[in-house]
Design goal:
This protein has 9 helices and 12 strands. The protein is α/β, with parallel strands linked by helices. Helix 1 crosses helix 9 and helix 3 crosses helix 5. It binds NADP nicotinamide-adenine-dinucleotide phosphate (NAP) and glyoxylic acid. The site of NADP nicotinamide-adenine-dinucleotide phosphate has 30 residues, from helix 5 and strand 7.
Length: 315
């Protein structure tokens, strides 16, 4: 039995070293150079697998994503049908995301970019501030990541709401569900966060129409967006136009339709856009390899896999 990394855009040698450390007995292979006999390979961890690579593994039993999202696997047009796909649901990854969301909500709430700009010019501008309770934060996606962020923001005193497909009940968080409650959810959100997966239904969801439905009752008059879900969810031209027209106050973007974000993209230089290079929640090689190795062991012992992806649903 062998395990194969198919991660052409990742530092695979580093991941192989991590897997060797946490599972020394596992036969770890790397695509393409260290593939070996394809018949041996029963488990794979893939991220943006080129077409026909997974299809060419005749004895594949499980496909692992090395992150929470699985869009990088599902976009393989030749993905073999019927093979279970397991995604990451691990406290380490979740806590990293929560740090990012809390950091960027606070960055806007405390106007840190304004303070940084003032410091560059040695300006002492002690402008009035407001309490966390003055801001309504709305989180699209109340899954593993969304729920943890919602709880931490709630504990800081923000008025928190969330929106998901199925109804949730989270103490101290206003929970909205489904398309029929989307507008009501938007209407009470001064800061809109996306922690949604990339699916056909969420593609382009952060567009001009969505932005126009957001609350304008908050202290910044215009709303703020934070996208740490996937780049496909944002219509970048709408975001830029809404920033310039004053319909949007500011944006933090961690994910982009094209990554790395091209150097000539106007998002880079917009004064009200904060760009981070898809690092909101970084997969730690040793942590994630330990998670994958534990699931392989479960599977080998006849136990059910956990955190399986519903391929039809897309996440
Ligand atoms: P998850 O547990 O599967 O949660 C996804 C949430 O989105 C669920 O609450 C789901 O609703 C909701 N949802 C999906 N489609 C929807 C729709 N059409 N309308 C309304 N709600 C919808 O996933 P997670 O672990 O929290 O991760 C979420 C996403 O974060 C990942 O898919 C990935 O794209 C992104 N991510 C980004 C980074 C980064 O570094 N930027 C790192 C990790 C993850 P239900 O609860 O009703 O199913
Ligand atoms: C990263 O983007 C992930 O999906 O974990």
């Amino acid at each position: 039995m062998a395990f194969l990394f198919v991660t052409p855009t990742w530092p695979t040698a580093l991941w192989k070293a991590a897997m060797n450390k946490v599972a020394p007995k596992l036969d770890v292979r790397i695509w393409p150079d260290g593939l070996g006999r394809v018949e041996d390979i029963e488990y794979t961890a893939a991220w943006l697998p080129p077409a026909n690579v997974l299809k060419g593994l005749p004895n594949l039993k499980v496909i692992f994503s090395l992150g929470a999202g699985v869009d990088a696997i599902l976009k393989d047009p030749t993905l073999p049908a019927g093979i279970p796909i397991v995604r990451v649901n691990d406290d380490d990854l979740t806590k990293r995301m929560t740090e990012y969301i809390v950091l960027h909500v606070l960055l806007h709430h405390r106007q840190q970019r304004r303070i940084d700009a003032n410091q560059k010019q040695k300006i002492w501008d002690s402008f009035p501030t407001h309490a966390a309770s003055a801001l309504s934060v709305g989180i699209m996606g109340l899954g593993v990541m969304g729920q943890d962020s919602a709880l931490r923001l709630r504990d800081l005193g923000f008025r928190v709401a969330g929106w998901s497909r199925s109804r949730k009940a989270i103490p101290g968080v206003d929970c909205f569900a489904g398309p029929s409650e989307f507008d009501a959810f938007l209407g009470r959100s001064d800061i809109l966060i996306s922690l949604l997966p990339a699916t056909a239904e969420t593609d382009g969801i952060i567009n001009r129409g969505t932005i126009q439905k957001l609350s304008r009752k908050g202290p910044f008059v215009a709303p703020i967006i934070i996208n740490a879900g996937r780049g496909r969810q944002q219509v970048a031209s709408d975001i830029l136009e809404c920033l310039d027209s004053g319909e949007l106050y500011a944006a933090t973007l961690d994910v982009f339709a094209v990554e790395p974000l091209p150097a000539d993209d106007p998002l880079w230089s917009h004064p009200r856009v904060t760009i981070t290079p898809h690092i909101a929640a970084d997969s730690d090689p040793e942590v994630i390899c330990a998670y994958v190795a534990a699931q392989i062991e479960r599977h080998q012992n006849g136990l059910p896999l956990i955190n399986l992806v519903d391929v039809k649903r897309g996440y």
